[in-house]
Amino acid sequence: MKSALIAIGAALLASVLTLQFAGGQGGLDVAAVDERVAAALADSAIKPRVISFTAESDEDSWLQGRNRDGSPRPGPSNHQNPLIEAENAVCFLTKVEFQDMSGAEDTNACSVSIDDFTGWWQVNAILGDGSDSSLRCNARCIVWE
Amino acid sequence: MRILISLLLTLLPCVGLQAHHNTQAEFGAFGSETTYIEANIVSISWGNPHVMINVETTGGEMPVGERLRLVSHPINFADDHGFVAADFAVGDDLRIYGWTHMRNNPLIWMRAIQVNDGPMRSIMRFTDMIDIANGVFEKMNMEPAANLNGSPPGRAGPESVAKLREMGLIDEDGLMIWPPQ
Q: Quick one: which H or E segment has residue B100?
């Protein structure tokens, strides 16, 4: 169990560092990234002692493209639900539920992202422009301390 | 038949709740205590389902330099309360009464806002009703929500509605009267 947790921790750290170093670049020089990640891991002061998992947020990030009376309330609409500070966590989607998809305009999306302003992970429910369908999104996070 | 009607009446409020994000589950009851914050606007996202203003705190009851997101109603509800995007600009100084998030997310649900040297204006009509019913609203030096007069008071809670009725602030159609006549 312990070795599995350490392996998960190392994989997470590598993933995060990869994202950190490679994010936003059009072309990816894999060898260079590998080299930098390996160097960063060797120098890293992060020695995770405890890895834990958050529960899903109590309330989904959700949007409905219709009002109570059935009349359309179409997108665009973007509901953002903060999850946890991004400094020592990585989050992933655990719920993606779309309903009432009936046309090409029903373009919905669930995603997780780091909010640049607050520095928190957030789960986003995005109702596309003109979409009158509905969606629910949620996420969990792995936290290292 | 009676059982069926009872069941429907029990379920109806749940149908209503499904239509909006459960603000009170996230930030506490409409009548709960607010926090006072002074802040500077960093960016504005006037969109649905919630208008949002990113701010950096400059004073009040929170440490200086905190980065927070002020959230409120959808665009049309904010408009009904008397607020439009043009009321705000990056760099404006704000004074805010609001509710902190119950799980310490960096969010504040706005109760009332003052932009620069303007008036403190309510953006929560049901809290106005609760404060009026409790006899504290007029001491708060706050302009009521633009849609307070003529609003159905149900979401202020039965206790507040009863008090408002006693105060003569509910008309024969069951709607809020403000200012008092």
A: strand B93-100
Give the residue on B whose Cα is nearest the Cα of A61: B21
Residues A84 and A129 both lie in one domain: yes
ipTM for the predicted complex comes to 0.78
Cβ pair B105:A120 closer than 8 A: yes
Asked if residue B63 has a cis previous peptide bond (ω within 30° of 0), the answer is no
Domains of chain B listed by start with CATH number? 23-121 (2.40.50.140), 124-181 (no CATH)
Provide the whole-model pTM. 0.79
Q: Which amino acid is at B137?
A: F
Q: Inspect the interface and report whether the beta carbons of B42 and A117 lie closer than 8 Å.
A: yes
Q: For residue A40, what are the contacts with CB-CB under 8 A and spacing of at least 6?
A: A17, A21
Q: What is the pLDDT of residues B67-124, one digit of tens each?
A: 999 999 999 999 999 999 999 999 999 999 999 999 899 999 999 999 999 999 999 9
One domain, residues A28 and A68: no
Tell me: the pLDDT tens digits for B156-181? 999 999 999 999 999 999 999 999 98
Same domain membership, residue A64 and residue A44: no
A42 & A58 share domain: no
CB-based contact (8 Å) between A58 and chain B?
A: yes
Within A23-134, where are the H helices? Answer: 30-43
Question: CA nearest B73 in A: which residue?
Answer: A79
The reply to whether residue A78 touches residue B47, judged by beta carbons under 8 angstroms, is yes
Locate tokens 């169990």: which residue?
A: A1
Nearest to B71 by CA among B38, B111, B36, B119: B111
Number of domains making up chain A: 2
Amino acid at B60: G
Tell the burial category of B53 from Cβ atoms under 10 Å away from its Cβ (0-12, 13-18, 19+). buried
In chain B, the residue whose alpha carbon lies closest to the alpha carbon of A57 is: B103
Per the structure, the complete domain to which residue A40 belongs is given by: 2-48
Q: Does residue A64 share a domain with residue A15?
A: no
Q: CA torsion B103→A46→A138→A97, rounded to 10°?
A: 180
